[in-house]
Every structure is written in C-alpha cells, then in structure tokens.
Write a structure and sequence with these properties.
Layout: H1 12-21, H2 28-55, H3 60-64
Length: about 70
Amino acid sequence: MDMASILIELDDTTYRRLNAVAPSAKRQRSEFVRTAIKEAIRKHEFARMRAAYLKTPDTETAADDWSGCEEFEL
C-alpha cells in the first residue's frame, strides 16, 4: 500500500502528551495519528449523513424495509 507523508507541527504540550500515549518506538505514534485521523474523518462523514437524513428523512415505509440493507461496520 502506498502512503503519502505529511509534516505536522505540534506545540510542546501536545507533543509530550502524544508521546505519553503513543511513543515513537515501533511506529506506535504514526499509527496512533493515522487512527485518530481516520476516526475524525469517519465522524465527519457520519455527521454529514445524519444531517442529510434529518433534512430528507426516509418515509415510514422505506425506513421499515430492511430487505436491501448493506452490512455496515464502524
């Protein structure tokens, strides 16, 4: 899998706190940051979906029809 690299700057307090929960050894810190970014993106996407459904909710009939439902993993 190809991965792009980014450079981010953190203030000293955030950097120390990050190292406390995800030390740089064995790429724990990189994985922690990747996971945090993925979770933030997922939350943003869920918020957009929720807003869309609130704007145009399903009808009662469509909401009760689970026959074409996809499996959805969090």
